[in-house]
Design brief:
This protein has 10 helices and 19 strands. The strands form 4 sheets. Strands 3, 5, 6, 10, 11, 18 and 19 form a 7-stranded mixed beta sheet that branches. Strands 14-13-12-15-16-17 form a 6-stranded parallel beta sheet, with helices on both faces. The protein is an alpha/beta fold. The protein is globular and about 60 Å long. The chain has helices spanning about 40-45, 95-100, 150-170, 190-200, 215-225, 260-265, 290-300, 315-330, 330-335, 345-350; strands spanning about 1-5, 10-15, 25-35, 55-60, 65-70, 85, 90, 110-115, 120, 125-130, 135, 180-185, 205-210, 225-230, 250-255, 270-275, 305, 340-345, 360-365. Helix 3 (about 150-170) crosses helix 4. The structure holds zinc ion (ZN) (2 copies). The site of one zinc ion has 11 residues, from helix 2.
């Protein structure tokens, strides 16, 4: 059974699709969990439609964990019963970055993304994939693995900023001294992954979000040793947001997807500080900024803005190490981030879950076989 979003109607429908047998170089994977995020909601509500040429539909789902059930020849290194997480982006076969396994830096723009851009995703009972696009997960971590894709985004954000900082200031040479104080703007799944990342790497951090002081997001931030500041959601006035944050930071990770927020964050950078933008604000809107003041401040303080999208397999591998440490140090606290679970058939209800205590909504596709209980 697969879930297909048609281009001609809003919403999805359940369909049965017959898969051909596995070909050499492929493995067949039984889907266990699929996580939902804003991208999926945009695909379902019709605001994000990137179908391949000649098609008017896509199978959504890009955050998943599954179990290998069949192997084609030439798939050494991966075994039947292995838990696996697929990466999302597939390279263009034209540019040097894609050829070197850095499709996250594809320079032609002709890449595809499973479940998002032109290529079917994982909201189905079984899918096929090549081992080079899979990360094998230790069995005891399979329930954590639905967070591997969002954690890979945070890993890339941090790596990009840390590499830049180490080049500019060589005395900042280790993961834990490269940044002293981080601001996480937006505490949804990505923001909370960043909070765990900072906790594991012993970097002080503050989280801001519109969720209330008593929300799950606020509690998670505080229990990881961070400060939480609830910022008010104001009418979009076409100006940078007015943030009630007094401190300044040498790393800011923006995960709110709001241009008024992003431009307000420029004022919160310390000298030599770096702002990493991860959110996509979507529809076109005008914004008036104090341009001269921001330019002056940016130049005088050696500030840097980095935009970061997607993540490659090396980020997934590093993110897996982070999840391993989280499971050792935080166990169930982390799994509380799965706030809602639904069987696959209830995908429409799952997509409608909202409110400040929603973090990760997971579709339970099928039970894992022979897995250690989490
Ligand atoms: Zn996502
Ligand atoms: Zn490319």
């Amino acid at each position: 059974m697969a879930l297909v979003v048609e281009g001609t109607r809003i919403g999805g429908e359940l369909r049965s699709t017959l898969l051909s047998d596995v070909m050499p170089g492929e493995v067949l994977i039984r889907t266990i969990f699929v996580g939902l995020c804003t991208t999926d909601r945009e695909i379902f509500n019709g605001t994000l439609r990137r179908f391949s040429a000649g098609k008017n539909h896509i199978l959504p789902g890009h955050e998943t964990v599954g179990q290998v059930v069949r192997k084609g020849c030439g798939t050494d290194g991966i075994n039947i019963g292995d838990f696996v997480v697929p990466t999302v982006r597939r390279g263009c076969d034209e540019c040097v970055n894609c050829a070197e396994g850095r499709s996250d830096f594809c320079s032609t723009g002709k890449f595809t993304e499973r479940g998002i851009i032109k290529e079917d995703g994982f909201m189905c009972s079984y899918f096929k994939e090549e081992p080079k696009n899979l990360v094998v997960i230790p069995a005891e971590l399979y329930e954590y693995a639905v967070f591997l894709e969002p954690m890979s985004i945070v890993q890339k954000a941090f790596s990009e900023a840390a590499n830049a900082q180490k080049n500019r200031i060589p005395t900042r040479d280790t993961e834990s001294n490269v940044f002293k104080k981080c601001l996480i703007a937006g505490c949804g799944t990505i923001g909370l992954m960043a909070a765990y990342y900072m906790n594991i790497n012993k970097i002080a951090f503050t989280g801001i979000d519109t969720a209330s002081e008593g929300s799950l997001k606020a509690k998670q931030i505080r229990s990881l040793g961070g400060e939480y500041i609830a910022v008010q959601q104001r009418e979009d006035s076409g100006k940078p947001a007015n943030l009630n944050v007094n401190e300044k930071f040498d790393l800011i990770i923006e995960a709110g997807g709001s241009a008024p927020l992003s431009f307000a964050l420029l004022d919160k950078l310390l000298p030599n500080g770096i702002l990493v933008l991860l959110g996509l604000p979507g529809e076109e809107k005008e914004l008036t900024i104090p341009g001269n003041r921001l330019c002056n401040s940016f130049v005088m303080n050696n500030n840097m803005i980095i935009g970061a999208v997607n993540a490659n397999r090396s980020h997934f591998m590093k993110a897996l190490e982070v999840l391993q440490k989280i499971s050792e140090q935080h166990g169930n606290l982390f799994l509380n981030l799965i706030t809602h679970r639904f069987p696959f058939q209830q995908f429409e209800t799952a997509l409608k879950v909202s409110g400040e205590n929603r973090v990760k909504v997971v579709l339970e596709m099928q039970k894992a076989k022979g897995a250690a209980p989490c």
